[in-house]
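Record 1 of the preview.
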Amino acid sequence: MRSTAPLLLLATLAVAAPEARNPRIDAAVKAVQPSVVKVFGVKGFRGVFGYMTGVIVHESGLVLTRGSVTLDEAPQIKCHLDDGRRCMAEIVRYDRKSKMVLLRLMGDPGEKFPAAKLGESDKVRRGQFVLLVGNAYRVAEGREPCAVNLGVVSAITRPSMRAGLSDDFDYPGDVILHDAMNNPGVYGGPLVNLEGEVIGISGTLVESRETNVQLHYAIPIDDLKPFLEDTVARPDAGRIYTGSGDTEEDAEGPGEPGYHGITVLRAGINLATPAYVDRVAPGSPAARAGVLPDDLVLKIDRTAVKNWKTFDKMMAKYRAGETAQLTIKRKAEVKVIAVKLEAKP
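->
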């Protein structure tokens, strides 16, 4: 077999050559780099790295990243800013459904931090170039810039994937699949368009169930904006847990799924069967909201419902008091119905 080493060397030299630099990429990196944070939690867990990446999303010092045992078990969270400053941080919000975390940098009173500009992930298209920024292999400790990888968006979907040894993918919605290299330490870092806007937050490497091929993905930023905006609106609320309740006391367990009263039509193991409403329990939250038998559920919040099993799995993530926005098709009409779940009767 012919060696590919010379080709790889030529490709490396071509990228490194000054005349090959892309002004748009340079401008995008320059725009987002000051907002990228190197995050250090606990270490020593087998197979778990004690470092990751986050991005400042509000001038008050809110850092958006993904949750992990690295942060959950850390008595103190250390963050190194792009300018070399070292700052302690605390968790102010944790969402179990998305596994997203907001940290607050503990800077000087009234200090303002360089926040990244948030883009619109709904406008992301297949084939567009993206940049993935993060502290790959912990090469950046102080003022060293984080690693930047260039890639292309391949799809925006919720494919059949598994994370590590688990058969369940750890995000309930569609994700941005791309081929920018997601090395250890990049977890939680920003996926950026060529305008320097954050369009997603990097997840871990996952594998396709069908092919066992490793895939790189990011959580779309539009899914996370309500999570951020609600935290900004309640700056003095203390630590907030969502996904199983809104208080710290709810953090110990996942809690019981809320009750909605919808039974969708099942067809054994046939996962091609769409999520048609079979029955709506009288007096249930869904009945009061206006859901009817034979309605076809297209989406729950922003996530497409592909079949009856997807519907059951997604609705099981909602707790009493939470509201699910159901996009349904009724004959030729498409409408959105808000169903506020209750405790099981």
